[in-house]
Each structure stands twice: as C-alpha cells, then as structure tokens.
Amino acid sequence: MFMKREDIEVKIEECIDKAKRYKGVGEVASYIPELKNVDEDSFALSIVTTSGDVYNFGESEKIFSVQSISKVFTLMMALKDNTIEEVFSKVGTEPTRYEFNSLIPIDQRAANPFINAGAITTTSMIYGENKEEKFNRVMELIRQMSQNSEFTFMKDIYESEISTTDRNRAIAYYLKSKNIFDQNADEVLDLYVRICSIGANVESLAKFGAILANEGFDIYSSNLIVPQNIVQMTIAQMASCGMYETSGEYLMKVGIPSKSGVGGGILGIVPNKCGICVYSPRLDKSGNSVVGKNLLKILSADLGLNIFL
Ligand code: DON
Question: Subunit notes for this chain (predicted)?
Fold first, then answer.
C-alpha cells in the first residue's frame, strides 16, 4: 500500500511512543569498562528503505560502539575471502543456548559465526598482509555498503576491551589449539577487538542493512555490491543466531533477522523493504538492547515487517 512520507513518519513515531514504556529497563554493559561511559537513556532509530528513503529519529547522529553487530561484517569478509566450504568447515551454522562468550559451544568448532568464538574464527579468515590491511578492508566494505557514511575507530573502547578481554583470549588460544587457525592467537584477538570497536551511528548501519535487504544491490546506483549468496547466508544466520540464546524466541515474536551488540545497537534486515537500526544502551541479560528489541517488535507488528507474514 502506498503511503505518504508524513504518514509513515507519524506511524513510526507512534511505535516509538509505545516503546517508551521500556525506557529505564536493563543495564548498560560494564564488563568492558569504557562501555559504561554513555548516556544510559539515549535513543536513536533509523530506517532506510530499499528505494533509498531515510527516516531518522532521536539522536541519529550519535556514534556508538557497534560491538557484536560487527560479527555481520566479519562473516561477510570471511565469505568474500574464502570459499563457502572453507568458512563453514571452520565455524558451524547452528544457534546455541549458551551465552555469547561461552566456551561450551566450541566442540570441534564454534557453533555459529555470531558468538564470540565464531567471530574470532571468521576474523582469522580475513585476507590481508597485516592487521592494518585486514582492518582497512573491513572498513572499506562497510563504507561502500553505506554510501561512505561515517564509521570510525573508537580507540578508547578498543583499549578498554583489549586490556580486559581474558575470556576472548582464552577462546582464541583454544581455537588455535584445535587448529581452527594457525596465526598468532593474540594477533587474531587484536583484530577481533578492533573490529568490535568500530563506531557508527544508526543511519550508517541502517544504510548498510538496506544493501542486504536489497539483495546486495546499491539502493541508489543499483550496482551489485555484495554477491547474492553472501547476502542470503548472512541474513539467514542473523535470523537463526543474531540475538544469541534468545534468537528463537526473538524470531518468533519479532520476525526480523537481526544482530545485536552490547554497545546497545540492533541491526534488523527486512528483505526487499528496509534496513533498520535502533540504539538504546540498556541491555537485557543476554546482551540485547531492551528498548531496541521491543521497538523492533512493535515496528514489525505495526508496519507489517514480519518476514513470516
Ligand atoms: O567480545 C565481546 O565480548 C564484545 N566485543 C562483543 C560482545 C557483544 O556485543 C555481544 N552482544 N550482544
């Protein structure tokens, strides 16, 4: 059904109003000390449609730490740089009921690319002569997918995480002991933490999401940017594993393939419609933004975005 821009804006604002009842619920992440230094109740939403329309609300310019949303970037890079068989011989495709930084879902390999062990694995599969080149290639991909939107490196977040990330260090060494990769484990870990420390605003991420929603084609020039099999596998993994141990319940209630990060962002993809990014840093126990997941649920119902309906 065709709707005027003003009418769509009013509908989205009504959804935001409904989600206000979740304001103040949950805690900001503190296990990475620097992540505490945010305004706990800040809020932003961006929806970018596959026809190129941009709808921004709240603090849409605010840069926040993407954290695990970057696991989407890393999976895409691993799939670009290696064959599909190579990638999925090193990392599985199954959801897990264990928390994102658990060592339990690493049997012969990590359960999926969206838990920490899986993303450390895909990080080890990014091509480049050195760390800088690998990191720059990730930045190039996300800039290309977001019409050169602003993405930054948040040095304070990186330093805070790299000096406290003992659990991920254990995971990296364990994966190396299993011959999942043969590079230096500290180097792989460093690149993983750097990529988690990328900063973005909701509009940059929603634009990135809109390319995935648009089957890999640029929303303005229609050039193919990402091969369609990579788009399809990335969205499928977001649907099954993107919200950690709550992925099944979230998919059932919200019906939008999504990926969360402990920085407070959630990126959602509605194929052939739009990319959505919500930012609100208070998290539930699994590490998902409370306002974010509830707003996505309301938007899904009220704007007809559930992929199963
Ligand atoms: O490795 C970590 O623990 C963080 N850099 C990322 C975790 C994360 O974002 C989990 N998300 N909900």
Answer: Homotetramer.
